[in-house]
Design brief:
It contains 8 helices and 12 strands. With 265 residues, the chain is an alpha+beta fold.
Length: 265
């Protein structure tokens, strides 16, 4: 069995002080994908940067204190690649992939955007370039007898079941019709599958992000934007997927929760 977790840590240094290190020490995951690390590796305490028992690789953003992704693996990766061949996003701290035997695992932090602003235009440029890359990645992997799993904060709720207050968010970035249609193309055209939704087809959520404002967490007024997006053969091997939701608001170490899936051999 292969267990893989993904979580947006909302600043790794802050998360480490609030419970991330304890979570990592206790997890049974074989691979952990992190997003929004927000630090250069040399800014991290040694035990956080290179945790015992893990091989950690980082792709920080050129813009200090922003974005940043990482992948932690129990065994050393065979190869590491940063970015997806588009110069604007190579040093943006938004995409990192590692090769393990028979599997490529990527950590993605898709831009969050803001409707009607330059941030949304950046998100749209990222999406336009990333879709053909995903299709090509799947084709190359299939030719080599490999699977692909892109984990991370996709910053798009695909369906109404993926966001509690969907009616109030129809004009907000993350639930815009064109964003949802784009994510549909990732599944329908590029040939990937939403692992968590496959295993939980008839429920709202399970949500993975809740605003720190108000009582969103207590009321489970969340968004399901942290996804395991897998090539079809790998998706069919998923036997369990769940959100590691904190027991209470005080127990949170990020505004996101880890999303974990277990894949059969």
């Amino acid at each position: 069995m292969l267990t893989i977790s993904t979580v947006n840590v909302n600043g790794l240094r802050a998360a480490a002080k609030k419970g991330y290190t304890q979570w990592l020490a206790a997890t049974e995951a074989d691979v952990v994908c992190l997003q929004e690390v927000r630090a250069e590796p040399d800014q991290l305490p040694g035990e956080v940067r290179d945790p015992e028992g893990w091989h950690a690789v980082y792709a920080p953003a050129a813009a200090k204190g922003r974005a940043g992704v990482a992948v932690l693996t129990r065994r050393a990766p065979e190869e590491v690649r940063v970015g997806f061949g588009v110069s604007e996003f190579t040093d943006s701290g938004r995409y990192l992939e590692v090769d393990l035997p028979g599997l490529t695992v990527a950590s993605l932090y898709l831009p969050s955007g803001e409707a009607g602003t330059e941030r949304q235009e950046e998100k749209e440029r990222f999406m336009a370039a990333f879709l053909p890359y995903l299709a090509g990645l799947r084709e190359r992997a299939a030719a080599a007898g490999r699977e692909v799993l892109v984990c991370g904060d996709w910053n798009i709720a695909h369906q109404e079941a993926d966001i509690r207050n969907w009616k109030a968010n129809r004009k907000n970035s993350g639930f815009l019709p064109e964003e949802r249609a784009w994510l549909g193309r990732v599944f329908d055209e590029a040939g990937y599958a939403d692992v968590v939704r496959r295993l939980h087809p008839d429920q709202d959520g399970p949500y993975s992000w809740w605003s720190y404002r108000g009582r969103a967490f207590d009321n489970d007024a969340g968004w399901r934007i942290d996804l395991h997006v897998a090539t079809e053969p790998l998706a069919r091997r998923a036997v369990k997927a769940y959100v590691e939701r904190a027991a209470d608001h005080a127990g949170r170490w990020s505004d996101h929760a880890p999303v974990t899936a277990v894949y059969a051999p």
